[in-house]
Amino acid sequence: MKPSSAARQSSPLPLRVVHGLVFGGFTAMCLAAGSPELVHLVRTQLQPFHPGPPPRLELLLPMLAALVGMTAVLVQSARGRSARLHWSLLILAALVLTLWGQHDGLVAGRTADSANLKILEVARKLHEGTVSSLQAQGAVSEDVGPWQAALEQISQGMPSPVRTRSFAPLPFRIQKVDSPEVLPSDAPPGTLLLYVMEGGVAYELHPVGVSSTGEPWPLRSPEGEPLVFRGIFNP
């Protein structure tokens, strides 16, 4: 008898129940591992920006494969037949890939708070270095170029922890403003808004982070006050 014809024969109910429970458990493991990645994928497409790395395909694809295989198993079981072997093998392969995909553990940095802390840390380091230079030289550059070069050195050329819908990482960058009282609302996360007083004797840095809903958000203290790094020359 060919395997294909055997698969069409009726199967005892206890055997179908045991098979469904075992492979249903395997599928549940794949779903538990892949669902956070699916939630993250949906969130990235509903928000203009999002923090953290993109969803892991090594968990998303096995979850989809396990769902397809389990659906076929349930349909065959409902018809009183044993499932074809390749559906069971598909679920097993999905489980193996899921276990392999979890070897790095949970993905860190997918919250607005963690991204904002990173942006704040980079802004603080830039400020500390600039204050020292300001006191030593009496003025800071009014051009964006030296500021951007210093920022790239501090961030070691790495982008900010915030990405677009297409998962492109946003760079750390300096954007000069004419007045600290009127700041642009469309500056993307990872931007440091820079105001330099004429003559370079004082400056302000306003870091832009990301809100919990994925919008650009000027960083604020827990009390709600804007976080601003100020430097002024003290002769």
* Topology as a string of helices (H) and strands (E): HHEHHHHEEEEEE
Give the N-to-C terminal Cα separation.
97 Å
Helix content estimate: 40-55%
Total helix count?
6
In total, the number of domains comes to 2
In total, how many beta strands? 7
How large is the radius of gyration? 27 Å
Structural class: alpha+beta
Concise account of the structure shown:
This protein is of the alpha+beta class and 235 residues long. It is built from 6 helices and 7 strands, in the order H-H-E-H-H-H-H-E-E-E-E-E-E.
Task: Tell me what the structure shows.
The protein has helices at residues 3-7, 13-46, 57-78, 85-101, 112-137, 144-154; strands at residues 49-51, 162-164, 173-176, 191-196, 202-210, 216-218, 229-232. It is of the alpha+beta class and 235 residues long. The protein folds into two domains: 3-101, no CATH class; 112-232. Strands 3, 4, 5, 6 and 7 form a five-stranded mixed sheet that branches. A hairpin with a 5-residue loop joins β5 and β6 (216-218). It is rod-shaped, with a radius of gyration of 27 Å. The N and C termini lie far apart (97 Å).
SSE order and pairing:
Blueprint: H1 3-7, H2 13-46, E1 49-51, H3 57-78, H4 85-101, H5 112-137, H6 144-154, E2 162-164, E3 173-176, E4 191-196, E5 202-210, E6 216-218, E7 229-232
Parallel strand pairs: 3-4
Antiparallel strand pairs: 1-2, 4-5, 5-6, 5-7
Helix pairs in contact: 2-3, 2-4, 3-4
Name a few traits of the molecule.
235 residues; alpha+beta; two-stranded antiparallel sheet; rod-shaped; disordered N terminus
